[in-house]
Amino acid sequence: MKTHSAIFAFFLFVACGGTAVIDGDDGSGGSSTGTGTGTGTGTGTGTGTGTGTGTCDCTGPADCEQFSDECSSASCLSCNCAYESHPAGSPCSLGVCNGSGTCVECIAETGCASDETCVDGSCAPSLATACQDTCDGLTTCQGIPPDPQCPGQCAQELGDCSAAELVALAQCNAGLLVACDFDAFVTCIEKLACFMN
Known about the structure:
Mean pLDDT: 76
Number of strands: 6
Helix content: 25-40%
Shape: elongated
Distance between the termini: 7 Å
Number of helices: 5
Radius of gyration: 40 Å
Strand order of the largest sheet: 1-2
Strand content: 5-15%
Largest sheet: 2 strands, antiparallel
Low-confidence stretches: 3-38, 44-52
């Protein structure tokens, strides 16, 4: 758990065969005769025939249209559907294409409101705005003068927050200003992994 300073103390949070033939003499002058005859004939015939055919996934652009979406286009290339991402900034339902085939809310600050920032393709309250709102809420609810060091401490503590976490922080701030309920505020920010880590 982090150790927080000053007013920010409120932000308490993977085979072989072997054959052997042995001939012997009994030593009495006798004789033994053995005769063996063997004949073997073998004939083998083998015939194999194989036929293979391959099919194309596509023969033209129309065969690949089903794989296209708002930020990428599919075309037929050497019997396979090939994909090409639309340029970054191309309009799409959420905002713009990111150049890698995904539709996102933003790819730069210009895609967001003036008090927002673009983080991982989403517009979120800027860290500075979120921290100022947090500090304002804390001091207002306590009835004490604003602490000029609070926004900077906040930004240092929450610098790793994702867009989603900054949105969640803004919601925590809004709840604090409504009821000045510090317990509810602490419970709210304890859910922010960027603050707890």
